[in-house]
Write a structure and sequence with these properties.
This protein is 37% helix and 22% strand. The protein is of the alpha/beta class and 375 residues long. The chain has two domains: 94 residues, GMP Synthetase, Chain A, domain 3 (2-Layer Sandwich), CATH 3.30.300; 259 residues, Rossmann fold, CATH 3.40.50.300. The strands form four sheets. It has an eight-stranded mixed sheet with strand order 8-9-5-10-4-11-12-15, sandwiched between helices. It has a three-stranded mixed sheet with strand order 1-2-3, covered by helices on one side. A two-stranded antiparallel ribbon has the order 6-7. α4 crosses α12 and α9 runs parallel beside α10. The longest helix has 17 residues. The N and C termini lie far apart (61 Å). Belongs to the Mrp/NBP35 ATP-binding proteins family. Binds and transfers iron-sulfur (Fe-S) clusters to target apoproteins. Can hydrolyze ATP. Pfam families: FeS_assembly_P, ParA. Keywords: ATP-binding, Hydrolase, Iron, Iron-sulfur, Metal-binding, Nucleotide-binding.
């Protein structure tokens, strides 16, 4: 073997090691571990003797993979930044055979076999965002909290468990269905958040007419048939009240923690207390209370449009009833931007680049996120 051959072999081995750090954004695994790299070939450039042409053969899981550009860009970056030589990357992309894909999916499912969030090894914090009634802004709180957590560096996922009133796809600007990899669904990623919702399948104009058993099955499928990877935090946008879905979540995710959303007025806070009292009947901890629409800022004055004190009342009543401290975690203002920007498909706490916005509201959500992750 010539010195040139030894050099190219060494480069090929080094590059393969570097590619082990390239992570498939949907599966959360190294592209080498997933068998997506089928060959690395180095050869001296004919036109530039000091340079090396390096070809990487990549097999994607499915044809037209929506994140193929992301994967190939990461591979190109790993090759181009190789410090030992000047490499010119050439990425050749194809698709896995049906048999290879089936084997990969089978191996991934074998790791799951059941709801991954109830395993002893799971480190995912799970927060069920609940309310006693609709119209208190529970879904917008969920979306902006999730976007904030992602912007703070947490691997964040959201399940839109409000089967009848799903709104997370709209709030995140999602219009596509999840990718189906041989029967295993990949959550849609928007603004750094992994998301699944029945609205991605049913369409936003269709009514959902489901009863208890089918609701339970939909949640089981969201937990077990979707490849979540290992998120740091999972938020569930719950249906209002204490119906079937609340019971299903308690059964499927006994390690979930409740966050109760209310508005200041007495009517909302009274029913919010009932949502928190679910913890007396199911093994769920109430982490705290968020008061939404606490005031409206007008010419330097805070107008208490919906009254005041609702969040404090819920906090105090739940603390007494449950015998544990249930703090008031945050009081969030009523802002028109929450609706206008949210309906455009971008959580209001983010700027257009996806970074945390430099606004008082974004700071409030950042404080809320840190309190939750620290509680």
């Amino acid at each position: 073997m010539t010195d040139a051959d030894e050099r190219t072999r060494a480069i090929e081995g080094d590059v393969l090691d570097r590619l082990a750090r390239v992570i498939d954004p949907e599966l959360g695994r190294s592209v080498t571990d997933l068998g997506m790299i089928t060959g690395v070939k180095a050869r001296p450039s004919k036109d530039h003797p000091d340079e090396v042409d390096l070809t990487v053969h990549v097999e994607l899981t499915i044809a037209g993979c929506p994140l193929s550009r992301t994967i190939t860009d990461q591979i190109t970056g790993a090759v181009a930044s190789y410090p030992g030589a000047h490499l010119t990357p050439h990425i050749e992309v194809s698709t896995m055979s049906a048999d290879k894909l089936a084997d990969l999916v089978a191996s991934l499912k074998a790791e799951r076999r059941r709801n991954p969030f109830t395993k002893d090894t799971s480190r995912t914090r799970i927060f069920a965002i609940a309310s006693g009634k609709g119209g208190v802004g529970k879904s917008s709180v969920t979306a902006n909290l999730a976007a904030t957590l992602a912007a703070l560096g947490y691997n964040t996922a959201v399940i839109d468990a409000d089967i009848y009133g799903f709104s997370q796809p709209t709030l995140f600007g999602v219009h596509q269905q999840p990718t189906n990899v041989d029967g295993m669904l990949m959550p849609v990623v928007a603004w750094g958040v992994k998301l699944i919702s029945i609205g991605m399948f049913a369409g936003s104009e269709r009514a959902i007419l489901w009863r208890g058993p089918r609701l339970q099955r939909s949640l089981d499928q969201f937990l077990s048939d979707v490849w979540w990877g290992e998120p740091d935090v999972l938020l569930l946008d719950m249906a209002p009240g204490t119906g079937d879905m609340a019971i299903s979540v308690a059964q499927a995710l006994p390690n979930a923690e409740l966050v109760i959303v209310t508005t200041p007025q007495i009517g909302a806070s009274q029913v919010a207390v009932r949502a928190g009292l679910v913890a007396l009947q199911v093994p769920m901890r109430v982490c705290g209370v968020v008061e939404n629409m606490s005031w409206f800022e007008h010419r330097g004055e805070r107008l208490r449009i919906f009254g005041e004190g609702g969040g404090r009342r819920v906090s105090e009543q739940l603390t007494t009833a449950l015998g544990v401290d249930v703090p008031l975690l945050a009081q969030l203002p009523l802002e028109t931007d929450i609706r206008e920007i949210g309906e455009s498909g971008r959580p209001v706490v983010l700027d257009q680049s996806g970074a945390l916005a430099d606004t008082p509201l974004a700071s409030e959500f950042a404080s809320l996120a840190r309190r939750l992750m620290g509680c």
